[in-house]
Amino acid sequence: MNPFPMQTVWLAVAILFGILEAATLGLTSIWFALGALGAMVVAMFNGPVWLQTLVFVLISAVTLVLTRDIAKQYFNRSRQPTNADRIIGAEALVLEDVDNMHATGTVRAGGAVWTARSRDGTLIPKDSTVRVVDIDGVKAIVVPEDTV
């Protein structure tokens, strides 16, 4: 005989995920707490452990997929774009030839100097005007202004 009924185990799992969620405030584990509560309900009706586990996984996955983007919008309203986010789409001046083959190139965009690479490998000469189309790590990915 199991010393802990499965509904107690699932309740403990839900409480642990709830505590983790409260500690992080980052919407990291609330879905798993909901999944554990669903599994606890199945356990209360004497469902087999495999069914309890399946319900836990399904509820956790479905609630994660359906609500994560919505929840992030509401809970991260104060999030400010980084300077990298701000320069995507911006015009930039090439300060040093952008040459992917030699791993050289810098541009001034958004008031800051960025290491730059050409999106398609095209050599872009100094003093050209380019458009920032992406950020890859700490490098601005650029295209010549006339190709935009």
Description of the molecule:
This protein has 148 residues and is α+β, with helices and mostly antiparallel strands. The chain folds into 2 domains: 6-75, no CATH class; 83-147, OB fold (Dihydrolipoamide Acetyltransferase, E2P). Helix content is 45%, strand content 24%. The protein has 4 helices and 5 strands; from the N terminus they run ααααβββββ. It has helices at 6-24, 30-44, 49-75, 83-87; strands spanning 91-99, 104-109, 112-118, 129-136, 139-144. The chain has a 5-stranded mixed barrel with strand order 1-2-3-5-4. Helix 1 runs antiparallel to helix 2 (30-44) and helix 2 packs antiparallel against helix 3. The radius of gyration is 25 Å and the shape is rod-shaped. The N and C termini lie far apart (71 Å). The mean pLDDT is 87.
Give the topology.
Layout lengths: L5 H19 L5 H15 L4 H27 L7 H5 L3 E9 L4 E6 L2 E7 L10 E8 L2 E6 L4
Short description:
The protein is an alpha+beta fold and about 150 residues long. It contains four helices and five strands, in the order H-H-H-H-E-E-E-E-E. A five-stranded mixed β-barrel has the order 1-2-3-5-4.
Write down the domain tally. 2
- The backbone outline, from C-alpha atoms, is rod-shaped
Strand count, sense and barrel status of the largest sheet are: 5 strands, mixed, barrel
Q: What ranges have pLDDT less than 50 throughout 5 or more consecutive residues?
A: none
Please provide the ordered H/E string of secondary-structure elements. Answer: HHHHEEEEE
Keywords:
148 residues, alpha+beta, OB fold (Dihydrolipoamide Acetyltransferase, E2P), 2 domains, five-stranded mixed β-barrel, rod-shaped
